[in-house]
């Protein structure tokens, strides 16, 4: 030690308290992250549900349009031969 400075070492109790504090902080952070993950998971599930409904609607709409075009072209051929 230089210039008569004294350094003190933490006691075992102090070290254990610090470890417990760190452990508690890590648990709080983990819980906060887990909560954020759950919120994001719910948002993604809602988005997937919306996209599924939208995709079904588009598929149905395309089928109707295809059928309308087919019927329209079929009517055109029928009228040509009258």
Radius of gyration: 35 Å
Order of helices and strands: H
How many helices? Answer: 1
Helical fraction equals over 70%
* Apparent shape: rod-shaped
The pLDDT mean sits at 85
| Distance separating the two termini | 114 Å
Oligomer: single chain
Word description of this protein:
By secondary structure, the protein is mainly α. The protein has one helix and no strands. It has one helix at residues 12-80. The relative contact order is 0.04. The model has no long low-confidence stretch (mean pLDDT 85).
Topology readout:
Elements: H1 12-80
Quick tags:
mainly alpha; 84% helix; 0% strand
Task: Give the gist of this structure.
By secondary structure, this protein is mainly alpha-helical. The protein has 1 helix and no strands.
């Amino acid at each position: 030690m230089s210039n008569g400075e004294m350094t003190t070492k933490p006691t075992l109790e102090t070290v254990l308290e610090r470890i417990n504090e760190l452990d508690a902080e890590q648990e709080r952070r983990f819980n906060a992250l887990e909560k954020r993950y759950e919120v994001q998971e719910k948002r993604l599930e809602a988005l997937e549900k919306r996209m599924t409904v939208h995709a079904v609607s588009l598929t149905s709409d395309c089928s109707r349009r295809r059928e309308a075009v087919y019927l329209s072209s079929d009517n055109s051929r029928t009228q040509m031969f009258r």
